[in-house]
Amino acid sequence: MALKDAEPDLISHLITNTPDNASGRELLYGESRLIISAGSETTSTALTFIFMQLATHPSYMRAIRKEHRENSAEYHCQRPLPLLDAVIHESMRLWPSVFFGAQRITPPEGLTINNHFIPGNMIIHMPPFTINRDARNFADPDSFIPERWTERPELVLNKSAYNPFSTGPYNCAGKGLAMMELRSVVGRVVNEFDVILPEGFVAETYWEGIKDHFTAGPPKQLVQFVRVKE
Ligand code: HEM
């Protein structure tokens, strides 16, 4: 607020468009809390789950490293790489950063979806966790199969079911940036390090320990990042 000639960014846009009074400041504090957790917690959770998937499926770790090295000359995180993106999408399908799905209100006249009438002014939501594990949308829905996003598209029965960033006018404002962060961190870390789980690690206990507290909360888990030799 004190910087009058600041570079335009998200918060300067909000400040300019919010009344400078007590209730305006409450709004700004709320938006600030939202943008901080929306932009950090979601991405760190997605990264945690992706690294855990790679640690438990090391063949994909080696394949991503190979793909990264083969494309290193012209690589940029704004551009998808087939296997890297497939692993990111498959991890976010099984373990989306936001399980429950944002709420919406039906229009006053109600709404018909797939022949079901939903009355007006009802709070509805579409939980990604449940939708992503529905066998009507994805074949073998509980299995980690990145190939469904590449050479095995028949395993995706309903592509529109996959919305880890939500959809519509209020979808994630940071989707593009988030994908750049995920590609950049996963690609570069895996290029240099193997992610190794400790002796006695039990995958089921880890995945079952995830909690839903608005965003998904992974349990604490120590892993080792071991520099690859070649
Ligand atoms: C893997 C990372 C991320 C995931 C999975 C994710 C997912 C989501 C989801 C599901 C929503 C709810 C949208 C709705 O109400 O329908 C949302 C909202 C939002 N996200 Fe993200 N997000 C991620 C990263 C980011 C980043 C990096 C930023 C910004 C730097 C960001 C900014 C926002 C904002 C501002 C909203 C609120 C949009 C609104 O209410 O209009 N997100 N995100």
TrEMBL record:
Gene Ontology molecular function, alphabetical: heme binding; iron ion binding; monooxygenase activity; oxidoreductase activity, acting on paired donors, with incorporation or reduction of molecular oxygen
Keywords of this entry: Heme, Iron, Metal-binding, Monooxygenase, Oxidoreductase
SUPFAM superfamilies linked to this entry: Cytochrome P450 (SSF48264)
Amino-acid positions noted as binding heme in the UniProt annotation, renumbered to this chain: 172
Keyword Metal-binding: yes
Cofactor: heme
Highest taxon of the lineage: Eukaryota
Family the UniProt entry places it in: Belongs to the cytochrome P450 family.
Name assigned to this protein: Cytochrome P450
Naturally occurring in which organism (per UniProt): Neocucurbitaria cava
